[in-house]
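FORM 12-B: Structure-to-Sequence Request
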């Protein structure tokens, strides 16, 4: 890069942690005159009540638009539930999967465009055109690769959203699957953004069910390994516990220790067929820095709690600094 080049950042993200981090990153990049492309997890997607839902995409959309319900971490701020209550009266949908009226508007618009023949990439482009997000959102793939939770050796399964939201991850799974992902391809623009990036960041999202499906799309992890940009990840684990949600259950099922070093080892070093060059860990996990370094990944100890906008932006600055920017 030269002093006149515009900084190009690619972020792999999903979930609440990913959307929160993206807001601070967007604000910092905007101050530097750069651009942000977010490759969103679509493994959480599902069909419900005849509508196509993309929870991680929408969380990212609402967060960057400044309309996310910050109290619950997802959905639209100030939303109401008249339509959801009416659907419940007809026994349609999942009564435990709360969808507000404004949120349903996005799902209806998306589904309408998909049924008209638009791709998920094109539908997301239309959704984000409503607001000045300061970023470009891309799905990881246009292929439907919803996450299934396999509960036993007989293959009993349910959709990830039911396991996560209704059962709060209390049912012990055998494994997670994304049917169809082996034949999926990266969505249009994803590989080009990775190849052109000055920095590639991995958000503090669930490593197994948010970042895992992104990296499982054929060709995507290879593109990251081949990129000229440094790859920096932010640990979603602080003090041997997930910052939010039930990521510890997902990690246990995948055989990954619920530690900052354990997740770093799961992603692996780019020099050893993994994807990371550097890894941000919390001060609470500073003793793990040597173990991360031993993996061939450079550890950076930083404050990771994104408790307000200033701290979130400071974390983005730290991630860019770890990339030499």
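FORM 12-B RESPONSE
SEQUENCE OUT:
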């Amino acid at each position: 890069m030269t002093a006149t080049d515009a900084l190009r950042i690619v972020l792999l993200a999903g979930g609440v942690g990913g959307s929160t981090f993206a807001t601070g990153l967007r604000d910092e990049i905007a101050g530097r005159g750069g651009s942000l492309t977010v490759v969103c997890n679509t493994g959480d997607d599902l069909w419900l009540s005849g509508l196509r839902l993309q929870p991680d995409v929408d969380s990212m959309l609402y967060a960057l638009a400044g309309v996310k319900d910050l109290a619950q971490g997802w959905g639209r701020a100030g939303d109401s539930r008249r339509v959801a209550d009416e659907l419940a009266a007809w026994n349609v949908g999942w009564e435990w999967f709360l969808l507000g009226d404004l949120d349903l508007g996005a799902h209806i618009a998306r589904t309408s465009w998909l049924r008209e023949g638009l791709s998920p990439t094109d539908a997301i482009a239309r959704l984000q055109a409503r607001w000045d997000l300061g970023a470009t959102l891309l799905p990881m793939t246009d292929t439907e690769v919803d996450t299934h939770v396999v509960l036993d050796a007989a293959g009993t399964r349910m959709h990830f959203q039911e396991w996560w939201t209704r059962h709060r991850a209390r049912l012990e799974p055998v494994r997670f699957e994304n049917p169809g992902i082996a034949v999926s391809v990266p969505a249009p623009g994803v590989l080009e953004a990775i190849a052109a990036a000055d920095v590639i960041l991995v958000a503090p999202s669930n490593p197994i069910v948010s970042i895992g499906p992104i990296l499982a799309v054929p060709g995507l992890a290879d593109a990251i390994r081949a990129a000229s940009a440094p790859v920096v990840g932010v640990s979603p684990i602080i003090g041997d516990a997930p910052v939010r949600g039930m990521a510890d259950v997902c990690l246990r099922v995948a055989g990954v220790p619920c530690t900052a070093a354990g997740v770093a080892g799961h992603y692996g070093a780019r020099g050893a067929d993994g994807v990371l060059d550097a890894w941000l860990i919390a001060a609470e996990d500073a003793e793990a820095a040597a173990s991360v370094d031993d993996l061939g990944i450079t550890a950076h100890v930083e404050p990771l709690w994104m408790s307000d906008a200033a701290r979130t932006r400071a974390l983005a600055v730290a991630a860019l600094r770890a990339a030499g920017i």
